[in-house]
Specification:
alpha/beta, 10 helices, 6-stranded mixed sheet, binds zinc ion, Nucleotidyltransferase, domain 5, binds 5'-O-[(R)-(carboxyoxy)(hydroxy)phosphoryl]adenosine, 5-stranded mixed sheet, 11 strands, globular
Length: 351
């Protein structure tokens, strides 16, 4: 079954065609990074206007790349939220019109659930990995969201912990701004950190009260701000690299430590998944794998660690929306019909 999906929740206009929830036939992403780099962040109206311009060309390219015409597409999937409302509207309206005109069922998908399903994807010519096995412990690390989630079956989630203030990606973006590294901050910080000394600055790691699976990164961000204020005017490349490395290390330590703490609390889990934009971070992947190896050895477990197979599936993309949509549709096909009344939402709630 081929699903065509659209994602426009923030600053990427994206469309994809995915077969049976896993095999990616086309994954087109029109990034607005250059546009938003000028303002150091996303201006919602500017993003929405760009979605209007890019949506049709992206859809056309997607069908061509996937070697499909509309008759080959069985259903549509669309990000309903959370995200920027003006950006979401462009996607939901487009999907509604296609659903009506082409007479296809339309499946609304929650954006973070989409990120979770990025670990089911593989490229058309890539290696098909085994299907993930439940229960799965998931760390979602995005620009807007940061959660620890227990997934017991398809679309069955329990939130174990979440950020109390900034999300991990948001912290990367804000610290990058403090260091004058531009937007988006995550890739810039991780690149610079390669040349930095992660032990140079002792930054706070917020573990919160004993046993807590929640996160807090705003104190860490403030520490970077206070330290950097003292070197205004004299901040050189060495300082920036050392601060980037020290900051990244503090974030990665907390994220990986809490993930392993959660693994101890839920002894039945078979897999650990990392999802969302920050899952592109190599140091984070490395540290989780290291800690998991020790954990597996210590408790004689065989928990598998997965992160998205392609960097294109880490940050916002439509393939993940098609994957999530497929498993919703498969469970209850009659529920999804031709639809023109998808109302976008900014709420995180998983419906
Ligand atoms: O999931 P995503 O594309 O958008 C949201 O749903 O929020 O995540 C975007 C976030 C940005 O904050 C960006 O700085 C971060 O992911 N990011 C990274 C890396 N690549 C992207 N953070 C750390 N290291 C990276 N390599
Ligand atoms: Zn996202």
């Amino acid at each position: 079954m081929k699903i065509l999906s659209i994602e426009s929740s923030c600053d990427e206009t994206a469309a994809a065609i995915v077969e049976d929830g896993r095999k990616v036939l086309a994954n087109i992403i029109a990034s607005q990074i250059d546009l938003h780099a000028k303002t150091g962040g996303v201006v919602p109206e500017v993003a929405a206007r760009e979605h209007v311009l890019k949506m049709i060309p992206v859809l056309e390219e997607c069908l061509e790349k996937g070697g499909c015409d509309w008759d080959d597409i069985e259903a549509l999937a669309i990000t309903r939220g959370p995200g920027l409302i003006s950006s979401l509207i462009i996607g939901t309206e487009t999907a509604s019109v296609i659903s009506y005109v082409k007479n296809k069922p339309l499946i609304p998908v929650q954006h973070i659930v989409g990120h979770i399903y990025s670990n089911w994807l593989y490229e058309e010519n890539g290696e098909e990995k085994s299907e993930p096995e439940f229960p799965i412990l998931i760390l979602t690390v995005s620009g807007g969201h940061n959660e620890l989630i227990l997934m017991t079956d398809h679309h069955k989630f329990k939130i174990l912990g979440e950020t109390l203030d900034d999300a991990a990606g948001e912290a990367f973006d804000k610290v990058a701004r403090i260091l004058g590294l531009g937007y988006p901050g995550g890739p810039a910080i991780s690149k610079l950190a390669l040349n930095g000394d992660a032990m140079k600055f002792k930054l706070p790691q917020a573990f919160l009260e004993k046993g807590s699976l929640n996160f807090s990164f705003s104190g860490l961000k403030t520490s970077v701000l206070n330290a950097t204020k003292k070197v205004v005017g004299t901040m050189d490349e060495k300082y920036k690299a050392d601060m980037a490395a020290s900051f990244q290390e503090a974030v990665v330590q907390v994220l990986s430590e809490k993930l392993i703490m959660a693994a101890e609390k839920f002894p039945k889990i078979k897999e650990i998944h990392l999802a969302g934009g920050v899952s592109a971070n190599k140091r984070l992947r490395e540290m989780i794998q290291q800690k998991l190896n020790i954990f597996n050895q210590r408790f004689d477990r065989k928990i598998i660690f997965r992160h998205p197979q392609s960097f294109n599936y880490c940050t916002d993309n439509a393939a993940m929306i098609a994957a999530a949509g497929y498993y919703l549709y498969e469970a209850n096909p009659k529920k999804f019909k031709k639809k023109t009344n998808i109302v976008p939402t900014t709420s995180f709630e998983i419906w």
